[in-house]
Specification:
single chain; 161 residues; alpha+beta; Immunoglobulin-like; six-stranded mixed beta sheet; 1 helix
Length: 161
């Protein structure tokens, strides 16, 4: 009877210590990502951001301008959103390494207009729409697209050009 009690006491003491150690290691591996999305006038605007972890293949959508918990690691981001005027369409994508509290910004003021032309120009009676898409990596689920009237679509360049 003594041996059973002693063994049970050791297990009772070790399990909480092991669980505490596991949760500490788990918490240490987590960071956070805040993606700021700004329209062409520099004001925060709502956007969904596609987030793809290139090592684990974890994929999710997060809300822009909001802190989100993520495991530390390398991520590819893609977003598309409508500017504050309700007419501008913006797309962008870039890489980010999450380590602790990480922030990054999609700033539509840095966006470049998408210009296309058709020769010969179509006659009257045709709707004109320009579309652009950005994907995080080859075969990645992190793809976002946007369509807008000619002159109203912008692409935010990434730093890797």
């Amino acid at each position: 009877m003594r041996r059973t009690t002693a063994a049970a006491s050791v297990v009772t003491m070790l399990v909480p210590l092991l669980l505490a150690g596991a949760s500490t290691a788990s918490a240490a591996a987590n960071g956070s990502l805040t993606v700021t999305t700004l329209d062409r006038s520099g004001k925060p605007v709502y956007a969904q951001v596609a987030v793809y972890n290139t090592r684990t293949n974890d994929f999710r959508y997060i809300d822009g301008n909001k802190k989100t918990s993520l495991p530390n690691g390398s991520y590819e981001l893609a977003t598309s959103f409508t500017g504050g005027n309700g007419e501008d369409g913006i797309v962008g994508g870039h890489s980010v390494k999450v380590s602790g509290a990480t922030t990054t910004t999609f700033d539509a003021r840095k966006g470049r207009p998408v210009k296309v032309s058709i020769s010969p120009a179509p006659g009257s009676g045709y709707d004109r729409t320009v579309s652009a898409a950005v994907c995080a990596t080859d075969n990645s689920p992190a793809t976002m697209s946007m369509s807008a009237a000619p002159g109203d679509l912008y692409v935010i360049p990434n730093s890797s050009k």
